[in-house]
Write a structure and sequence with these properties.
Elements lengths: L1 H8 L5 E5 L5 H14 L3 E5 L5 E7 L6 H12 L2 E4 L3 E6 L3 H13 L4
Parallel strand pairs: 1-2
Antiparallel strand pairs: 2-3, 3-5, 4-5
Length: 111
Amino acid sequence: RRIVSEAAAAGHAGRIVHRLDGWDAAGVKAVALAITGLAPATAVLVGRADPTTVAVATSIAGHDARSVWASIQAACGGKGGGTASLVQGAVPADADRICAEAQRLLDGLPE
């Protein structure tokens, strides 16, 4: 809930990008799914480095986690896959770069 509240306060309600430093892929995935289960949202969660783990989840009709992931992958590299509602992957870029790219992408998504 704290992550959702912080995103709303920053003007990004429903479009959440958050770092979970030190978290593994399973933890990042679990938090992404929890966020999208609380309210309609598209979330990009970024975890442990070397390579950096990323989960993209969405519960907003018309948003596709695979499209968000493809854009992150095109900008930052990496590999991964999943469904329209959840994608997991690993990216060789640092977390700050991934988060900046993800926020840019999410800010451009339709309501």
